[in-house]
Each structure stands twice: as structure tokens, then as C-alpha cells.
Amino acid sequence: MKDQKIQIALLGLGTVGTGVYKVLETQKQEMLPKLGVELELKKILVRNIEKAAKKVADRSLLTDNWQDIITDDTIDIVIEVMGGMEPARTYMLEALRAGKNVVTANKDLIATDGKTLMDAAKDAEKDFFFEAAVAGGIPIIRPLKQSLEGNRISEIIGIVNGTTNFILTKMTEDNMEFSEALQMATEMGYAEADPTADVEGLDAARKMAILASIAFNSRVTFSQVYTEGITKISARDIRYAREMGCHIKLLGVARNTKEGIEVSVHPMLIDSRHPLASVNDTFNAVFITGDAVGETMFYGRGAGELPTASAIIGDVFDTAKNILYNCTGHVNCTCYKTLPIKPMDDMIHRYFMRLQVEDRPGVLAAVTSVFGKNQVSIEQFIQKRKTEDFAEIVIITEEVMERNVKKSFEEFKGMDMIKKISAVIRVY
Ligand code: NAP
Ligand code: HSE
Questions:
Q1: pTM of the predicted structure, to 2 decimals
Q2: From the centroid of its chain, how far is CA 64?
Q3: 141-301: what fold?
Q4: Does the domain formed by 346-427 have CATH 3.30.70.260?
Q5: 66-107 pLDDT, tens per residue?
Q6: Which amino acids bring their CB within 6 angstroms of ligand 2?
Q7: Considering only the top CATH level, what class is 5-136+305-324?
Q8: How many Å lie between the centroid of ligand 2 and the Cα of residue 109?
Q9: For ligand 1, atom 21, which residue shows the shortest CA distance?
């Protein structure tokens, strides 16, 4: 094997695929001394050969026919960076069953149906790695699966979406409203033409499903992650949070509790002194608490051409070493438990609430009475401003159960004195 080359096929030549192509080029001279074997990019699958030809030096690498790759027995590693569910899923399964190793960045697929792919890899005794699927260039899957394996992980908190972190940073630092900050994120190429997956928290939820599954050794899928985005956050919420010594961040929170796994993605107030509060712009960070290691934080670029390619090439090099030493397939699915997922209604948080109420005697007493009846204990009650039409009050609760907050809001709906529930944001 030492005199041979390991052949690779790349599926997709978009943002990440182009990064992978570039890093493979820049690492060319390093491969032999680093790995003991050279890696050669043999084929690149694209949809439009003319469009892709502008990005590669050798046009003969390009194909628009999957059969050119799946039937080529010399190809050992398939890198999938097309994205989406199909045909990515079918191609990866076919590749594994044909005895090829697979590296992917496809969080959508792994968060929904990762088990099928991992089982196929196990059956085939091949590697299936996906470091790039969570937090782009930040090493987090391998640390969780290997370096931190000696821990019982109790909590993971992540800022795992760069677009929303950029928007919230602009809203915080430049007092922008959400729509203005989103427009800026689009102009700068961070937000996609359809930003729904980012701003509604879906992208972060996929990443948290993957992280929770690995950290707690029990499968969590995308649909089990309670998800709220940042579209309702206003500059006023951020300003009030700052006055209270907090930042607002879109946080993924996963906890391993006695009653089951808690996993959710939503905006949260977080103390400005917490290390995650100073993670700004498009940066990502994952804060992990383990019983042996204590608190540890991973920080870096969560997306982009080269940072994401960095994670993929790490996986490819690992796979190449495993091929060389004939030990592919030894890092399998780590979900050996089946833990329940705790319903959101049972979760306990502190809450920041901003309400518009009629400005007349008895209103505050009525509000506190509803909370009292529903066991929602109040920590702070502040009247923030008064207009001709309403008074604005901000309430911070003690730790209370989500279902009790919901019950209170149901009662508010029938009370004319409550004009609007302007914001309800959990506090970390
Ligand atoms: P992208 O820019 O849209 O690139 C996808 C590429 O795959 C496009 O060139 C597309 O061709 C090609 N493609 C799609 N379907 C194909 C098919 N059936 N056959 C051949 N080629 C096909 O996407 P990306 O941003 O590189 O993301 C790729 C993957 O990495 C996704 O799973 C994404 O979630 C993940 N990821 C991305 C980032 C990031 O920063 N972008 C970070 C972490 C993970 P056309 O150009 O013809 O459409
Ligand atoms: N759209 C993602 C983000 C990058 O903004 O972080 C891809 O995971």
C-alpha cells in the first residue's frame, strides 16, 4: 500500500467542495510525510461541467455521472459536499456498500437519518466521518467522541450558527433592528437568499441534535429539538438585556438530566461575563461541561469555504491513515443508550418578558395574580416606559416550568388590560 496512492472522489463543487479542492492542492507536498501515502483527487461529480470547469485546473477530473465513481474500484474515499437529502443519501449508502469510505459535511442528513449511514458504515467496516457537519472548522465531533470520552457530559451550550450570531452582534453593537441586520448579513454573503434555516434556528437545531446524540450516547434527531429563531428579537429587547448585564444570543442547549435529555435552540439572555457572550460576528463556540474535564470551550469559524474544508481534510487524512493500517470502521455510532427526550413543557428556565399593559390602577396586581396562580414566581418587575396608549413592563421570573408560563399567557389572552406580549425570552 505504501507505494500506492489513495484515490478520492469529491461530490459537489460549491462553497465547501471548492475549499476541499483548494486545501487538497495546498497540502499536496505534505501528504506523503504526514500520512505515509499520497492522496489523489480522481473524480469530481458536478451537475454542470461547463460551470465547474472554471474552478479546476484539469477538466478531465469532472463528471456528471455518478456511475463513473461508484463503479471505479480504485476510489477509496468519497467526500460528499452536495448537501440535501437525495441523492446524497443514496450515493453515500452505495459508496459504503461498495467498500468506499465516506466523509461528509451534510448536517441535514445526519441529524435526520445519521443512524442508517452509520449502520451501513459499520456493516461495511468502513469509515464514515462528519466533523464538518457541526460548527464548520471547529473540531468538536472528534473531541466529543474521542478526547472527552472519559467524561459524563452534563451540558453542551453552543453558538452554532454564524449568520444569526452576526445579526445579533449587529443588533447589539450598532442598535440595528433585525431586518436591517439581516439585510447586512445578506449583502456580506453570510445569509443565504432564503435565510429561513438560519434565522428560524433550524440549522442550529440540526447541529444540536448531532452534538447531543454524541455527547449523551443516545440518538437525538432534528425533529426532537425544540426550536425558536431570532426573528422576533428587537433592538429594544437587546437594549434592556444590556441594562441588566446580559447579551442575547441564539443558544443551542443540551442537558443530560435524570428525567431525560433536554435539547432546544432559542434566543437566550446570557450574562455578559459568560465566555459565550463575547463570541461575536460569524464566529461559533461550543461550551461543554464534563464531570472530569470541568468546563471547556471550543471556538472558531463555524462556516465558509476553507474552515469547513479544514474539518473535511482532517477526516480524509484520518481515513487515509486507517486505510493504510487496515483499520477502517473502528469509530462507529456511539449511541448505545436510549434515553427519553424531555418535553419542552417540563423544562425549567428563568424568563425575561416584556408586556404592554393599560396604564391604570390594578393592572400590575392582576398580572402578578395570574402568575401567582400558575406558580410563576417573579424575581424583578420593572416599569420601563409610558406612552399615551400603554405602559411597558419588564418581568424577570425565578426558575419556573415552561408549562406554567404558557398557562399564564393563555389567561392573559382573555384580559383586555394586557395589550401585547412583546417578548418572551429565556434566561440562561
Ligand atoms: P453549495 O455551495 O450549494 O454547493 C453544493 C454543490 O453541490 C453545488 O455545486 C451543486 O451544484 C452540487 N450538487 C448538488 N446536487 C448535486 C448532484 N445531484 N450532483 C452533482 N452535484 C450536485 O453548498 P455548500 O455550502 O458547499 O454546502 C455543501 C454541504 O456542506 C451541505 O451539506 C452543507 O450543509 C454543508 N456545510 C456547509 C458549510 C458552509 O459554510 N457552506 C459549512 C458546514 C457544512 P450546482 O452548482 O449545479 O447547484
Ligand atoms: N448557515 C450556517 C451558518 C453555515 O450561518 O452558520 C453552514 O452550517
A1: 0.96
A2: 31
A3: Dihydrodipicolinate Reductase; domain 2 (3.30.360)
A4: yes
A5: 999 999 999 999 999 999 999 999 999 999 999 999 999 999
A6: 161-163, 198, 203, 302-303
A7: alpha beta
A8: 15
A9: 46
